[in-house]
Amino acid sequence: MPFGCLTLGEKKDYNSPSEVTDKYDLGQVVKSEEFCEIFRAKDRNTLKMYTCKKFHKKDGRKVRKAAKNEIMILKMVKHHNILQLVDAFETKKEYFIFLELATGREVFDWILDQGYYSERDTSNVMRQVLEAVAYLHSLKIVHRNLKLENLVYYNRLKNSKIVISDFQLAKLENGLIRNPCGTPEYLAPEMVGRQRYGRPVDCWAIGVIMYILLSGNPPFYDDSDEEDPDNRDKNL
């Protein structure tokens, strides 16, 4: 290779913070999650509303990896039951991910209010989830964190579609995966046993989701979950 082709120490191009704020008006923080803060954002030109996820690089390697991973995966997917990527920026200190705004509630919240779903309503939710996951699996993408909290009604209309959100832990399946992650109640046995795994772990999580929709309770219940309500959201 000619010497002039070497790129050692090549400077990375970052977006300036003003590129983000010139295009979008960020409101107050709506929600804080493990890896990011979530805002409502308005496009200054179209006045259209979006969801913005802001990741602080100073919060560590896991946060930086989650942000880069979500951007990479969402750029690959386009499906009516998956919350779509609209825009993404990387500044020296943060990552900004702009997504479609889903104005409906999480399926988890509906379960808390209603107790459980009818068989008809369950089949409607499951059909949409299965179609979206089949699409992801056709691209060799494993979501790895399917749960009621990541199933959202797109709007507040009675016949609203369901969209899958949160792709921070999603992964391309290039051979079997080693590192377990996700939410404890939804983990497949091979993940709990720290064995290698692949796309079938999403199918296990879908089964858990269907069980909860129909019964109002998780299939594997531990009394300690009531004592530690935050436990259900912990990743391994």
From TrEMBL:
Which one Pfam family would you cite for this protein? Pkinase
Source organism superkingdom? Eukaryota
- InterPro entries, A to Z: Kinase-like_dom_sf, Prot_kinase_dom
The residues covered by the Protein kinase domain are 24-236
Q: Which UniProt keywords apply?
A: ATP-binding, Nucleotide-binding
Q: Which GO terms describe its molecular function?
A: ATP binding; protein kinase activity
Question: Which stretch is the leader sequence?
Answer: none
Q: What is this protein called?
A: CaM kinase-like vesicle-associated protein
- What organism, scientifically named, is this protein from? Austrofundulus limnaeus (Annual killifish)
